[in-house]
Specification:
It is built from one helix and eight strands, in the order H-E-E-E-E-E-E-E-E. It is α/β, with parallel strands linked by helices and 135 residues long. The longest helix is centred in the N-terminal third of the chain and has 20 residues. About 7% of the residues have low confidence.
Length: 135
């Protein structure tokens, strides 16, 4: 019984520390297929992995084009957690950063763009906290 009480207290203490430190949302790592249909391999040719506050884009070719119907929400699979994204890492091999890819990722403050990127579509970084995107 004493061990169970100690474990309950530990869990309570860890939860309290997370809440105090501002870590109120915890996400498991999640990966989506986001390649353009024209890429060899289609959607699976490019993946996006969200791990904590970092979104990493990997693979070969162009990202799929995302759309919006209401000027707020997009078809990007991370749309529901976009305010939790602080860093985007685009790995070598990606050629096109698609339209609305990081639209309204309001806490996005850092992006890494490799030399393989030859095009950044319109509105890709609109509504982010990036001071500028040099390409």
């Amino acid at each position: 019984m004493k061990t169970q009480t100690k474990n309950t207290i530990r869990i309570f203490a860890m939860t309290a520390l997370m809440l105090i430190s501002g870590a109120t949302t915890i996400y498991a790592q999640e990966t989506w297929n986001i390649g353009a249909a024209a890429n060899p391999g289609g959607a699976a040719s490019v993946t996006a992995t969200l791990d904590g506050n970092t979104l990493t884009i990997s693979g070969a070719g162009a990202m799929a084009t995302f759309t919006t119907s209401d000027e707020i929400n997009t078809t990007a699979p991370w749309n529901d957690v976009r305010s939790d994204i602080h860093t985007v890492i685009i790995n070598e091999g990606i050629t096109v950063i698609s339209r609305l890819a990081f639209y309204l990722c309001s806490n996005l403050t850092s992006v890494t763009i490799p030399h393989s990127v030859t095009e950044i579509d319109r509105f890709a970084f609109q509504g982010t906290a990036l001071p500028s995107v040099v390409f």
